[in-house]
Amino acid sequence: MRDGQIKGLPYLITLTQSINLPFGGIKPKPPVKWAGGKGQLISQFEPLFPKQEFTLYIEPFLGGGAVFFHISPLEAILIDNNPELINFYIVVRDNLQALLADLEKHQNNKEYYYSMCALDPDKMDAVSRASRFLYLNKTGYNGLWRVNKKGKHNVPFGQYKNPRIVDKENLRQVSRVLQRAEIILGDFSKGLVMLSNSDTPFIRELYEGYDLKVVYARRAINCCAEKRGPVSELVVRNYI
């Protein structure tokens, strides 16, 4: 879908049909590392996916897009409030060849890394900006994306010996799936939904009457070291 137009695709599909759609025989993987990513939860999510037909997949907190890329729906609206992330996905969708060419220039060393951190993305063209974003994501510590009050990227160099900055085949598959998506910069209210993955009494009370399922994930990022590791999160469904 682009600008509200559906390009000759059927309106109704089942989730099974969507997941099994062929794309060169390769299912796309999330192209970026992302804190709170749901890739490790897919096996727990699958029994909870809707069995009925649906017309549109809306993802209000896109991030790494693990669920979106796993489902690979025929029509989607993808939303996130991170301008670097959204620009990256739009460039992958609309200008992949230029991005692949630009990614070849990057170097895996500390001096070059911090020179890229220092650049102002608002003064870069879309392709260079997306290339910088993916490079910093793949070579920064733990795949974090963090900026200071001045908007400068301030994640330390990851010191990975041989990071895979460019996965051309996966990016091609990602680009194909994104052709069917409208990509929006904004907060979750753009999708007219309210979601939370926190398994707390407050959230349980807030969603009383909905179907609640607990899933378990390992989270490596928390300001309190003792809170890193296995945690319980909540899936809230308005269907059975």
From TrEMBL:
InterPro entries assigned: Ade_MeTrfase_dom_2 (IPR023095), M_m6A_EcoRV (IPR012263), MeTrfase_D12 (IPR012327), SAM-dependent_MTases_sf (IPR029063)
A molecular function (GO) term: S-adenosyl-L-methionine binding
Keywords: Methyltransferase, S-adenosyl-L-methionine, Transferase
A Pfam family of this chain: MethyltransfD12
GO biological process: DNA restriction-modification system; methylation; mismatch repair
Entry coiled-coil feature ranges: none
Protein origin, superkingdom: Bacteria
Catalytic activity, EC: 2.1.1.72
Region forming the signal peptide: none
Residues reported to bind S-adenosyl-L-methionine: W34, K38, D80, D199
ATP-binding in keyword set: no
Family: Belongs to the N(4)/N(6)-methyltransferase family.
Protein name listed in UniProt: site-specific DNA-methyltransferase (adenine-specific)
